[in-house]
Design a protein that fits this description.
Blueprint: E1 2-6, H1 10-20, E2 25-30, H2 33-42, E3 46-49, H3 55-61, E4 68-70, E5 75-80, E6 83-88
Parallel strand pairs: 1-2, 2-3
Antiparallel strand pairs: 4-5, 5-6
Length: 93
């Protein structure tokens, strides 16, 4: 499954590690190049540096081909070619 994770912090990094170990096609998007390099060195994943809220960054990450983009902050972006919709998770406090 192709999955895009928005955010390479503690939660996003852990999520990438877990999902990559299950043979998923993972792309992590973050503005912090050092965090992305660390993940890229440790995991078999793709990384894109930039803001995950920008359509051109999402396209670079492959959002046109992905079904969902989980965000460690609790929102989920549903990728539709040319359209980005965000919905808050019902598990958020």
């Amino acid at each position: 499954m192709k999955i895009i994770i928005l955010g390479a912090g503690q939660v996003g990094g852990s999520l990438a590690e877990h999902l990559a170990s299950e043979a998923n096609d993972i792309t992590v998007v973050d503005t912090d190049g050092d965090r992305l390099r660390d993940l890229d060195d440790r995991l078999d994943i793709r990384t894109v540096q930039g803001r995950g809220s920008l359509p051109n960054i999402l396209r670079q990450a492959g959002a046109d081909d992905a079904g969902r983009a989980p965000s460690p902050e609790g929102s989920t972006c549903t990728a539709t070619p040319g359209v980005s919709r965000t919905s808050r998770s019902t598990t958020d406090p």
